[in-house]
Amino acid sequence: MTALDRVSRRIRRTARRLLDELNSRVTEHENADSAERPIVPPRPEPPLPVGWTRDDVLRLLQSVSIDNAPAGELDAYLREDFERFLLTWSLVRDEHGSALEIGSNPYFTTVLLRELTDLEVTMTNSFDPNASGVWSQVVSYHGRADDGPVERVFEYHSVNVETAVFPFLADTFDVVVFCEVLEHLLMDPVAAFLEIKRVLRPGGLLVVSTPNVARLENVARLIAGANIYDPYSGYGPYGRHNREYTRHEVVHLMEFCGFRVFDHFTADVHEHHAATFVEVSSLSDLLSQRGGDLGQYLFAAARNNGESRAGRPAEIYRSLDAAQLTSWQP
User: Would you state the torsion angle of the CA atoms of residues 182, 100, 86, 253, taken in this order, to the nearest 10 degrees?
Assistant: First the structure.
């Protein structure tokens, strides 16, 4: 080895050592930044109706009373999900015409649609999956003037949305609100979406909300070894969350069924309890790129101007004949 070779070799070793030190310092800096950067799921400030305060809207919904409904259960539900009702309303607030609200009970979203939009609302419920026809419930609530509660008879169609043909003609509605129902379905969400597509006018708006299975609290629960699944329900199999979804899966399902999704996001609507299960800052490295996907609920808005695909998406269904399954390729 010549003297020149020895010098060259020393230079290369020194360069490698300096580069390794630099990379180590960069990694330490990134780790420090990551540890300092909190994992905060998105929590947008819900918009309010013109001329209304947050307390005005809250009082309106707090006044809702349903005949034969357990008041304590409704109060807790409203406290937890008040911001979700506002976010749902915000996605349809400028729409006009006729609307179908699927799964209206306990009518918090219904009251916002009726009182704070120009939509004419038709409702469905499915307390008994074997029942059909038009039923009614007595619902009372205060107006904004607080003149006292007024009783209203809310008529609804009893429809099992994943097994029945909806009792409406094709192209009937300008808007369909499909919120907090998808997670309750037992076997065929595509059937529900295809019926929605049939009754929604071309170009009509579909709004979907559903719990986000990939929310931060669920991530923390799994790391801690806690269960993320919904308990069995005293209201029967449709009373529990049978299948929750990721944001990608909801968009996937909607586009598979012929809807063009133009907005989708996750959002927290109340305080989460992830810190009960794990030190959240320890998850920064893993979750720093997923902040937008960690909210408690998924929201998606789409127009009915696409073509539905045949079969069922293989990424969400299994144990069907090959001819019934279609791999999804957006």
Answer: 30
Domains in the chain, number = 1
Torsion angle, alpha carbons of 201, 208, 107, 186, to 10: 100
Backbone φ, ψ for residue 18 (5° rounding): -65, -40
- Asked whether residue 202 is domain-assigned, the answer is yes
Across the chain, the runs of DSSP E, i.e. the strands, are 65-66, 96-102, 118-125, 133-142, 149-158, 173-179, 200-211, 260-267, 297-303, 312-313, 325-326
The whole-model pTM stands at 0.87
- Segments in 275-314 forming alpha helices (H): 284-287
> Where would I find the beta strands (DSSP E) of 18-102?
65-66, 96-102
Provide the CA 44 distance to its chain's centre, in angstroms. 14
- CATH number of the CATH domain containing 126: 3.40.50.150
Which residues in 179-200 are b (16+ Cβ under 10 Å) and which e? bbbbbbbeeebbbbbebbbbbb
Answer yes or no: is 243 within a domain: yes
C-alpha angle with apex 176: 144 to 99, nearest 5 degrees? Answer: 50
- Position 143 scores a pLDDT of 75
* Cis peptide leading into residue 106 (ω within 30°): yes
Cα gap 274→216, rounded to integer Å: 6
| 170-181 pLDDT tens trace | 999 999 999 999
Q: List, for the chain, all residue ranges whose pLDDT scores fall below the cut of 50.
A: 7, 18, 22, 26-35
User: Where does residue 4 fall: left (phi above 0), alpha (psi -120 to 50 degrees), or beta otherwise?
Assistant: alpha
Residue 8 lies in a domain: no
Q: Is residue 293 part of a domain?
A: yes
Range of the domain at 69: 37-326
Give the C-alpha separation, 34 to 319, whole Å.
42
